[in-house]
Amino acid sequence: MNAERVNELIAALDRGELRVAEPVDGDWRVNGDAQAAILEYFRLREMEPQEVGPFEYHDKIPLKRNYEQLGVRVVPPAVARYGAYLSPGVVMMPSYVNIGAWVGPRTMIDTWATVGSGAQIGADVHLAGGVGIGGVLEPPGARPVVVEDGAFVGSRSILTEGVRVGAGAVLGPNVSLTASVPVIDVTGSAPVEHRGFVPPRAIVVPGTRPKAFPAGTYHLACALIVGWRSEATDLKVSLNEALREHGLGV
Q1: Which of 9, 26, 44, 221 is surrounded by the fewest CB atoms within 10 Å?
Q2: What's the whole-model pTM score?
């Protein structure tokens, strides 16, 4: 891929005209060319100093600009890199959004939350304080982390390795999910297990389950679906209300 084409693709990502992944017929289709362009952009760029008021940076990727025209609120010292797209109504508290990420309208990225390369965050999402959304760019074609519309991700939760959180789901504090961590629905008479996926409107909390090893039995991390979000639950208080409804404090 030549430099001109790389620059065109990165500019399209920055404007929101191109996405690393997008929803198609209920699933997510990955744009491997967009991922490859981001990787090549890193190789093409040279380190250079950047000054923002009293702050000085030394990096390859320019910072995103023109927030007023975009209709985005950015609280110092929040940072978004060029090549990330922020929709109108996004609020960035002191936080970080990496190149290739796409953030939907009216989403809140709370203090010290990070949105990794290529991550796809839907509309009306709340990423609470300290949430870590991992970046996925390699190999080209690998699905990035996806958080769909209306989801609430609780403080200090971590999502990596292409995990998909369904629309309207509520993750309690400290839920840590990878492609291999089981998400177990314990609301019925028998457990139902998911991997790398949180169903829409699920209410999820951290859990453990025992596993036998030669040296003994130990508890490994998992996540538990303990209920389902009510249609009447207001987005702004969904985490508190949903967890209290199921006897779990925040």
Answers
A1: 26
A2: 0.92
Nearest to 179 by CA among 207, 198, 160: 160
Q: How far is CA 169 from the centre of its chain?
A: 13
What is the total residue count of the chain?
A: 250
For position 244, what pLDDT does the model report? Answer: 61
Q: 3-53: per-residue pLDDT in tens?
A: 999 999 999 999 999 999 999 998 999 999 999 999 999 999 999 998 888
* CA-based nearest residue to 170, from 214, 124, 205, 208: 205
Contacts of 169 (CB under 8 A, 6+ apart): 148, 151, 152, 198, 199, 200, 201, 202, 203, 204, 229
Helix (H) or strand (E) holding 42: helix 32-44
How far is 192 from 224, CA to CA, in rounded Å? 10
CA-CA-CA-CA torsion sign (63, 16, 23, 111): positive
Distance CA 242, CA 89 (A): 25
